[in-house]
Amino acid sequence: MLATPADNPYEEPRSGRLAAWGTALLAGLVPPDDAAAAVLGADESHRVTGLPGDGPDDRHGLTWALGRLRVLGVQGLRLALPSAGHPLGLTGPAPFNQRAMAAGEAVLTVGVPLGLVPEVEVFGPPGDRSATVLWRCSAVNDGPPADVPSLHEAEFELADGLRRATVLLTRLDVAGAGPEALRALEAFRRRGHAELLAPGYPPRAVRVLESARQVAALLSIASGGHGAAVSASEIAARQDALAPLWRTARRAQVAAYNALVDENGKD
Questions:
Q1: Could you give the 3-state DSSP secondary structure of residue 179?
Q2: Dihedral sign, CA of 51, 54, 55, 61?
Q3: Do 245 and 215 meet the contact criterion of CB atoms below 8 Å apart?
Q4: Which of 24, 90, 127, 166 has the fewest CB atoms below 10 angstroms from its CB?
């Protein structure tokens, strides 16, 4: 079964882990084995294919692939979190953007115009699932990524977004989302997120990412059930009200994950 980040909004996007720890490795802040283990997380395996010079059947482990990207001249990795109608973080061409849109995430390299899109295969019974990931690499356009804010802009947008999300939760009868979603949110709040970004990230990036993920979790609950909405028009109105907040949360996540590579680019 193929999975996308939307399947579990409480979990960190795999492309975020690769962007954060890959950039830290390329900056010399973490050893290769630590970076590979952090990207792997709880998954069973990650492989990379399609690197320049690869044959059609070549598959590489993360440590080798990140080393190869360094040799090719890659200086850092950037996160993209596109959604329908919003190519957040992408540069084209259209075929790559379409694959990234379908996955809901991607990683773009800095210094060499390449992009990686994960194909996630989830297996196992509920409660005991794991995943294998194949990162497909291909050439991308060499241009500025779409609609990515600065960390300062993202933090400003989030302050208003968190307030608006909280108001919406009350107005839309969040209890209608169901006990499972509420339990997931409580677990999300208890777990802490200092481990989400790799060594070297500025504290502001950690703070922005924590806020962005809290907003996303709140919005997931608001979207998860009909709550007080009793008609199709009211349900549609709810989704229209939530859509700008989802965009704000995604933009902030991208800004946070890209903060290290952006900061290094100023040196």
A1: helix
A2: negative
A3: yes
A4: 127
Nearest Cα neighbor of 100 from 86, 72, 81 is 81
Residue that the structure tokens 């290094």 belong to: 264
Helix (H, G, I), strand (E, B) or coil at 233: helix
Digit-coded pLDDT (tens) for 60-89:
999 999 999 999 999 999 999 999 889 999
Q: What is the pTM of this model?
A: 0.86
- Residue % of the chain over a pLDDT of 70: 77
- Per-state percent for the chain, helix, strand, coil, to nearest 5: 50, 15, 35
Q: What span, in angstroms and rounded, lies between the C-alpha atoms of 52 and 31? A: 24
Cβ-Cβ contacts under 8 Å for 46 (sequence gap 6 or more): 36, 39, 40, 61, 62, 132, 133, 134, 135
- Nearest residue to 107 (alpha-carbon basis) of 145, 60, 56: 145
Could you report the per-residue pLDDT of 192-248, keeping only the tens digit for each? 544 679 999 999 999 999 888 887 877 777 666 544 545 666 667 667 777 888 899
Burial class from Cβ neighbours inside 10 Å (0-12, 13-18, 19+) for residue 113 reads middle
**Cα distance between residue 118 and residue 94, in whole Å:** 17
Please tell me the distance from the alpha carbon of residue 82 to that of residue 72, in angstroms, as a whole number: 26
Token pair for residue 7? Answer: 């399947």
State residue 135 phi and psi, 5-degree precision: -90, 120
Look-up of token digits 């979190």: 81
